[in-house]
TrEMBL record:
Signal peptide: none annotated. It comes from the Eukaryota. WD repeats lie at residues 62-96. Residues 27-112 form the Anaphase-promoting complex subunit 4-like WD40 domain. GO terms for biological process: anaphase-promoting complex-dependent catabolic process; cell division; protein K11-linked ubiquitination. This is Anaphase-promoting complex subunit 4-like WD40 domain-containing protein. PROSITE patterns: WD_REPEATS_2. Keywords: Cell cycle, Cell division, Mitosis, Ubl conjugation pathway, WD repeat.
Amino acid sequence: FFFRYCVNTMKLLHSKTWIEPLVVATMCEKMDVVALATKNKIMLHNTQSFQRLFMLDTLHEVTTLSWSPNGKLLVAGFSNGDVHLYQVEDGQCIVEFKAATPDVSSSSTCLHCHTAPITGLYWVDARLPVGALDRAEGVLL
């Protein structure tokens, strides 16, 4: 279930039942948008109307989400160690950091030997997302 309450009256404004369990939910501080992730989907909803802005299917299980400070980008970490950076405006993936060594013809960037699930992502100076500790290697990405 997802609930939205009026802060002043604590009156229930919206509720939504999900068929799939939610893995991650995060609010954007700059915009009225919430990012929700099920095992293999990322959805953005307007928090006022709960209208779906877009939905993305993912190949791997979503493990974490983080908003950029300006609310224009959303970064997603996955169970296989990949990290994807999405434009919130249209849902387009603009950067992919691959856990495994990519094909030389690929436009993605390699995270060099990182194979553990991404467990947390944080923004530094509004430029680059960094991940939580890699449990396999003890490396901070």
